[in-house]
Design goal:
- The complex is a heterodimer of chains A (436) and B (54).
- In chain A, 70% of the residues lie in helices and 6% in strands.
- Chain A is built from 18 helices and three strands.
- Chain A has helices spanning 2-10, 12-31, 43-51, 57-62, 66-69, 78-93, 95-102, 104-139, 145-172, 177-187, 190-202, 207-233, 268-286, 294-303, 319-338, 341-350, 362-397, 405-428; strands at 235-246, 249-261, 353-354.
- A three-stranded antiparallel β-sheet of chain A has the order 2-1-3.
- By secondary structure, chain B is mostly helical.
- Chain B contains two helices and no strands.
- The longest helix of chain B is centred in the middle third of the chain and has 37 residues, at 17-53.
- The termini of chain B are far apart.
- The chains are: A mainly alpha (436), B mainly alpha (54).
Amino acid sequence: MLKTVRNAFKVKEIRHGLFYIFLCMILIRVGSQIPIPGVDASFIKEWLESQGVSSFNMFDAFTGGSFERMSVLALSITPYITSSIIIELLTIAIPALEEMQRDGEDGRKKLNAISRYLTIGLSLLESIAMCVGFGRQGLIPDMNFLKGAVVVSCLTAGSALLMWVGEQINEKGLGNGISIVLLINILSRIPQDLVSLYEQFVKGKTIARGALAGLIVAAIIILTMVLVVILEGGNREIPVQYSRKVGGKIVGGAGSNIPLKVNTSGVIPIIFASSIMSFPGIIATFLGKNHSSGVFGTILSALSESNWFDRTRPLLSIGVIIYVVLVVFFAYFYTSIIFNPLEVADNLRKQGGVIPGYRPGKPTSDYLTGVLNRLILIGAAGLLIVALIPLVLNGLFHASVSFGGTSLIIIVGVCLETVKQIEAKMAVRNYKGFLD
Amino acid sequence: MWTSIKKEWHKIKWSSRNTVAKETSVVLAISLALGGMIAVIDYVAEYLLRFAIA
């Protein structure tokens, strides 16, 4: 392993890329410690503790604790992710955007520019909402227009800075910029989570009991990670036969295949489902109705992930059913956006490719749709298992950790993607890679 | 429905045990190394900021 690391650093491109990521990491972490001028930095932390709001947990994990500290990077890179998803969805609805997407490099540049403007717009909107919502509750002592404007400017600038960092990593570093920023934020919570697990399960126990508890916790974390690695590595290869012309006659040519990932939509279904389920809680919190009793209060509690699998309140686990339905729905919905069987079948026909046993055109597209429908269900089931393991443990043993299934999927996906990119660069120089 | 899903399941190519072990260990090593590095940066940044504000 150490020899491989040494070899990796011998390649100038990798060395520079990793050094660039390291510099960005310092910038992000220092930025996440700088408080916004004029705000009460401890307000959000105290507010979250007093309200018992779990709806913001995932958001805070993605911001690397910046939201809790109300630092200049409190909005994190989420507005950029949201705007990228919105633009991706709009390319289906708006023909002009669809044309840009197909327009090669120039079109991509235009789409990126629109995404950037949308990011600034969303950041402004989010920071104004935060300023108005929390400002008068105590976030900004002696609030006035000028103080509000400073807070809004700092939050928007912080989000724009992270967007720039992400794009710079894409250009000069290694791997995907947005994913790496997200990875840095998620990993920053790990030391705190490990301390919390230690205090909950190991501290104050006899050595034997403490060691056993520590081993069980480590085994569960590694098992979840292994499941994510297995899920990310699974794919279904569809065989394709390409024909070629020899002396005016069409003869069978080279064989190839279309690899379809089992987890076609990545972590998106979990993020969408969690966001939608936490939405009523966030609205109720802003309206001051999150402690309501009766049916409304029970519904709100059932929608909160932190109340699931609680043995003392089994009724609240009903929310899991809604969660499962939403994850499966978004898995189908998002895959239908990123993979179009009709387009793939059409491209195959144009390139002279045929799936053995299926005629080009509609039969091929129907076959691909069928395979995809079954794969999505298998992938969504895998995603749900990975996402629910930490929730079950949190519910049964009241463990409070931020690295749930979503974080683990992002950690594994980003690490493997970056390592594979490094490996490709090492292979060119005939060096052995990390995964060889 | 279930029969076709079962058939599809058998056609999926999963990573070998060796690959899964290697990938998991690489991800774990990177996560711990980065997590540690970030903790040190956070500590130093927090200390310097407190010093600067004071």
